[in-house]
Amino acid sequence: MELKVYKDKQQVAAKFSAYLVKQIESNDRLNVALSGGSTPKVVFDYLAEHYKDLDWGKVYFFWGDERCVPPTHVESNYKMTVDHLLKHISIPEENIHRVKGEDDPAKEAERYSSELKQYLPLTNGIPQFDLIILGMGSDGHTASIFPHQMELWNSKNLTDVAEHPETGQKRITLTGQVINNAKEVAFLVTGADKKEKVSTILSGTGESNQYPAALVAPESGQLVWFLDEEAYGQRA
Ligand code: 6PG
Known about the structure:
Blueprint: E1 2-6, H1 9-25, E2 30-34, H2 38-50, E3 59-63, E4 65-67, H3 77-84, H4 105-119, E5 122-123, E6 126-127, E7 131-134, E8 159-163, E9 170-174, H5 176-179, E10 185-189, H6 195-203, E11 223-228, H7 229-232
Parallel strand pairs: 1-11, 2-3, 2-7, 7-10, 10-11
Antiparallel strand pairs: 4-9, 5-6, 8-9
Helix pairs in contact: 1-2
Bound molecules: 6-phosphogluconic acid.
């Protein structure tokens, strides 16, 4: 596991963008699962501004989780990505594999699982992403697996329907077996509200096992945390 701590969200965005671009440049094809949340938004803005002319045709975008709302809805992770990145770069439509948040959640989870099997190489019999980008909520959730639904982490399905604990909003999320099968996983975590869970999870104490984010441990061993000083709780 690698820990990278930067001054603020803006610097996390700049450094993470450089890390992503390096991977794009050194591969013929890169299958990436995106995340929602406020940190990716800043990353997308940074990429759109600084790396507009990259060969984006080599990149295939999927989502680690999606809210069950239409693609034009303000809470759609797909819409956020379109607004902040996709509409500013040149990328073929067939490279975009979105989760259809407007469809029946259970059926869509099944359809999306088949899509993953169809488009991603299988390793250990499980679709393998080159890179999964994850965020972490202040409650320790990651993708859309929340602490009250830890069982989704061990689901036998590749994706499942999850529920937000407060709003009851349905979401579609990758499960633990897909996340830990990725070649590389990068956490993007910023803000003081994450400090407590970051410290518990990084200390690896028993208590941390109640948080989905603590279960992220790709078999490849390639796990990178991009944090800002606020989330880390001290100066870099
Ligand atoms: C989502 C997510 C979720 C998110 C975290 C962190 O769609 O809500 O993918 O897991 O990454 O809640 O969000 P912030 O970056 O906004 O703190």
